[in-house]
Amino acid sequence: MTTHKIQAKGATLFAKVEGTGPTLVFAHCLGLDHQVWDGVVAQLPNYCCVRYDLRGHGQSDVPSGPYSMGTLISDAEAVCDTLELRDVVFVGLSVGGLVAQGLAVKRLDIARGMTLIGSAAKHGQPEPWHTRAKTVRDGGMPAIIPEMLERWNARESSAMLDEWLTQADAEGFAATCEAIAGTDFYTPTSGLRLPTLGLCGNFDKSTPPDLVRETTDLVPGSQFHLIRGAGHVAPVTHADDIAAKLGDFLTSIGHV
Questions:
Q1: Quick one: three-class SS letters along 181-197?
Q2: What residues have CB less than 8 Å from 128, skipping those under 6 apart?
Q3: Would you say 13 and 75 are in contact if contact means Cβ atoms under 8 Å apart?
Q4: Which residues lie in coiled coils (predicted)?
Q5: Ordered alpha helix ranges (H), 217-252
Q6: How many CB atoms lie within 10 A of CB 193?
Q7: What CA–CA distance (Å, rounded) separates 146 from 150?
Q8: pLDDT tens across 183-232, in order?
Q9: pTM reported for the whole predicted model
Q10: 20 to 30 A Cα–Cα from 28, which one of 16, 71, 122, 139?
Q11: Are 111 and 100 in contact (CB under 8 A)?
């Protein structure tokens, strides 16, 4: 395992590389960091697994916002270009799935496949995201955590997620909300032609299964599976199921 400091435009990003084999790149959800993938990566020993913290999160820098989705996609490019990664399968949870879609549209030399977990081409209307950004800037992370946990519907893991969210940077969270607010990828994603897997917990209130399925179906030949009993952060709560579905998908597209 190695760690890296990646120079991106206006920020230094933290990345971790583990294992050898075909490459997977993982991008996490809003408010958490690369650790959401711990349980999944542990079950993929035959892959080179690259995880990084989005700007504003974890061990990456926290520039003042707002951020744009274009910037978050450029960050993913910086990680892949710096580490000389090509023909990867990009795995994104929630906002990480937006990054996956944007990267696939922009850089098919990097992304040969993508997995979208609890993610969509558009995550609702802009206003609620701007409201969340203001709430966090005014009251800090404690002001938004109850809403987040309700929407994520993670149930038995709520105490752990509460602790993780409490440690999140308020400005990084708010600025990323603003990036999500301005993103609508329905048209560009519908033009993609690459192997695509969609996964969603059937208890996810943040990005309901029908929305994830709708986005996955934009890409011809894609696959979609429900993760039974899971909420929004299925890689944390149902790592075994995510790893199994991801492993089957990678085998089916020859990324082994």
A1: HCCCCHHHHHCCCCCEE
A2: none
A3: yes
A4: none
A5: 234-237, 239-252
A6: 10
A7: 6
A8: 999 999 999 999 999 999 999 999 999 999 999 999 999 999 999 999 99
A9: 0.97
A10: 139
A11: yes
